[in-house]
Design brief:
This protein is an all-alpha fold and 58 residues long. It is built from 4 helices and no strands.
């Protein structure tokens, strides 16, 4: 599914979805995560990854 279609379906801008996709987001709303999972028929663990080497933002 194209990013702009997914963004439209979950109710966020193309730019914000792009930030999430590239990993540049500092946070994600649980409602946004839920909407993405609903549209892609997946679980949050399919989208998120923990990297212990990534420094915490301040």
């Amino acid at each position: 599914m194209p990013l702009n279609e997914l963004a439209r379906r979950i109710g966020i801008t193309d730019a914000n979805l792009s930030i999430l996709k590239t990993g540049k987001a500092k946070a994600v709303r649980l409602s946004t995560l839920e909407a993405i999972c609903r549209e892609l028929n997946c679980q949050p663990g399919d989208l998120l990854e923990f990297d212990p080497n990534t420094p915490l933002s301040q």
